[in-house]
Amino acid sequence: MKLLPFLxxxxxxxxxIALMVVGLRFITNFFASKSRVYRPTFLRQFALxxxxxxxxxxxxxxxxxxxxxxxxPAYEQVLLAALTLLILGFSMPALVLHAQYYARNFHTTxxxxxxxxxxxxxxxxxxxxxxxxxxxxxEHVTCKSRRMFWSNYNYIKLHLRTGEVLTLTSLLTRLxxxxxxxxxxxxxxxxxxxxVA
Length: 197
Prior knowledge:
Elements: H1 3-31, E1 37-38, H2 42-63, H3 74-105, E2 108-113, E3 118-123, E4 126-128, E5 135-143, E6 155-160, E7 165-169, H4 176-181, E8 187-192
Parallel strand pairs: 5-8
Antiparallel strand pairs: 1-2, 2-3, 3-4, 5-6, 6-7
Pfam families: PH_40
Keywords: Membrane, Transmembrane, Transmembrane helix
Organism: Hymenobacter fodinae
């Protein structure tokens, strides 16, 4: 119990700092010019993971009741198990997709400017050379559901003549404009319930 008075000011300070950082990034994005270079930025990740993290943050304090499992009645244990399944069922699929997309596109940079007919992909600092004529097949995979926390996670796979496959995930940017830019290539639209790249 002596740890709680010490921990509360630290948590309040961390929450205030996080709120200031998010607020400053949000405000500076209004004054920044429209970029044509896309990377997995903090703000993009925060926008995608906001609802799953909020669900997890709201539900986690209730899950502390598992420490008192022997002291609570059976019907409350059933309700606690149902709440746990609900929280994890809504938040974990989105967070798993987020982690997978982050691992796949952590070093990826997309340069996309449809007005100047530019689509370039960099892995680290190395540009992957290809043109529209080098694309054998393009897969644009979106989620069937529009109401789940993981609905905004989608990806595009570019299959090159060299056999290389480049994966662009929604962690980089919204991919609908990229798919529209590639409409004159062999573009396949697919819908899945869970868009694992």
